[in-house]
């Protein structure tokens, strides 16, 4: 009944690995069209075939190749990122209007960057985020400030989350993102955040969305989440700053472990907690049978061009 | 002239990636025979063709398939690990006697475990290690206890190293390994080590040995190094406990950065330092252009069955 840590990691990093099983990998790829941008050889993401079929693709900007299973944005090779983004935004707006896509209901029109093979900015899309674990430490050990997501959230309602988490806006640096989200989501004073937050690396994974995400099932969502720790003075209590969070609770290590095993955490928040546990010596080669598999899956090498901030 | 952090990581994680360039990957694989054990489908490692040719392979225990480029240990599928290890040890002893292999001169006869696809112990070979960074912290920041390897070491003489590092013996747990090596290499009192050392995960990489390693060039050496931090009281000074280390010096972050850039660190010790810098917020998405590539390469998913301790 209880989920192992590896099961939690696999739920987040759920896109098959070529080297594990070529047949499974190839079978899975058949469900998607590769997203490409004219002028670049790289696959920038995968779009579910059923989405490609229903999507309104204006012919002046898009070419669908059903045999090769590609969707190509045909903007000129030397188009500006702004122009590409505008074309994509117009396409999304048209799709929102059609109202054929569950995942677009309540579309927030937030923009996130997509990068080319040389790290150059190509267009806006969703890919990068920042997650922070706030904790207090006393003689009894560590305790974690864990929020419960609002039951009205479109995605993963009522699930447990990392203390602060959010998507990085275009042109935003990861550290600035986490400071901003700290103010918005947890009412953490900016000056304290700037002095206390420590960058701890990142987790990368390739997720296939399931029913808990809301919206279409099977959407491919490869992500980079920059990871931060913040040790809080016990007197500083995170408070919901917007309507995204129901409440914050201070949980012991054991309580967090139990909530993880019960599957209460949003999948990518579970892996950020597992990464914290590994970095702080709470999860070790001696007490976690799947230690090595977990560590490499938390840092998956994504087959897409990635940002350099 | 100076080496970037990504160059240092690539020097350590130097075995090509299939997904980066299939032609380069395939061309590289042609240089090796796959090492297999009768009864298991998995490739357990890669042996350089020139080594396979010169190696004395007693026909009763080994089959060389030059077309498939495999070396198979033909012990019965239900052989004990002890028996397999004995056969391998006899083969190595015979090769040492022939004296045709530079890398075997000064062979220390240390034994390390190899695991099967279910994590079961198959035989003894070299793969797992533990590395520890000892540091002190004061108002001016962090300082690191960095040893210089003895100029008489067979491998990487006179290069800089992590404070404590060593290979894990068969049946040894990673934490016990680092405590033991701490006593042997740095005279760190066992009781203080047990109370102070914190497990921080591991780095995994697939290395191709170059001239600095001593011995044959091109040997494939995939490794798992468990990573530990130990914050030392300034009064506790590491002292060489054996003849492996020339001296310990206390270096600032800047001095370590410069030594890294000059290529003074042993390749796999450089990546352990880079991992420390990332985990402690010294290397971030904002100051390291190759941040994401470095992070995933430090946690390469190795295509061999791995241990569960």
Automatic annotation (TrEMBL), chains A, B:
InterPro entries in the cross-refs: DUF4743 (IPR031804), NUDIX_hydrolase-like_dom_sf (IPR015797), NUDIX_hydrolase_dom (IPR000086)
Family annotation (Pfam families): DUF4743, NUDIX
Source organism: Penicillium malachiteum
PROSITE patterns to which the protein is assigned, alphabetical: NUDIX
Domain Nudix hydrolase as annotated: residue spans: 127-273
Annotated GO MF terms: 8-oxo-dGDP phosphatase activity
Listed name of the protein: Nudix hydrolase domain-containing protein
């Amino acid at each position: 009944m209880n989920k192992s840590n590896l099961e939690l990691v696999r739920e987040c990093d759920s896109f098959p690995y070529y080297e594990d099983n070529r047949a499974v990998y190839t079978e899975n790829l058949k469900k998607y069209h590769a997203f490409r941008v004219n002028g670049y050889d790289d696959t920038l993401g995968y779009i579910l075939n059923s989405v490609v079929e229903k999507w309104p693709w204006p012919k002046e900007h898009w070419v669908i190749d059903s045999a090769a299973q590609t969707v190509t944005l045909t903007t000129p090779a030397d188009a500006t990122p702004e122009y590409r983004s505008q074309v994509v935004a117009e396409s999304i707006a048209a799709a929102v209007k059609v109202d054929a896509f569950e995942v677009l209901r309540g579309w927030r029109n937030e923009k996130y960057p997509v990068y080319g093979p040389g790290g150059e900015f190509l267009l806006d899309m969703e890919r990068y985020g920042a997650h922070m674990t706030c904790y207090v430490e006393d003689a009894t050990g560590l305790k974690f400030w864990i929020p419960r997501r609002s039951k009205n959230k479109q995605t993963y309602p009522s699930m447990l989350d990392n203390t602060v988490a959010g998507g990085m806006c275009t042109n935003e640096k990861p550290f600035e993102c986490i400071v901003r989200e700290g103010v918005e989501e947890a009412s953490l004073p900016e000056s304290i955040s700037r002095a206390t937050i420590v960058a701890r690396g990142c987790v990368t994974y390739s997720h296939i969305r399931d029913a808990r995400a809301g919206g279409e099932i099977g959407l491919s969502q490869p992500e980079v989440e920059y990871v931060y720790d913040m040790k809080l003075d016990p007197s500083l209590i995170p408070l919901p700053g917007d309507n995204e969070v129901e409440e914050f609770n201070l949980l012991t290590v054991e309580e967090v472990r139990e909530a993880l095993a019960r599957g209460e955490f949003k999948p990518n928040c579970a892996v950020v907690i597992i990464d914290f546990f590994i970095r702080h010596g709470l999860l070790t080669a001696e007490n976690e049978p799947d230690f090595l598999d977990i560590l490499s899956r938390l840092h998956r090498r994504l087959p897409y061009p990635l940002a350099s901030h």
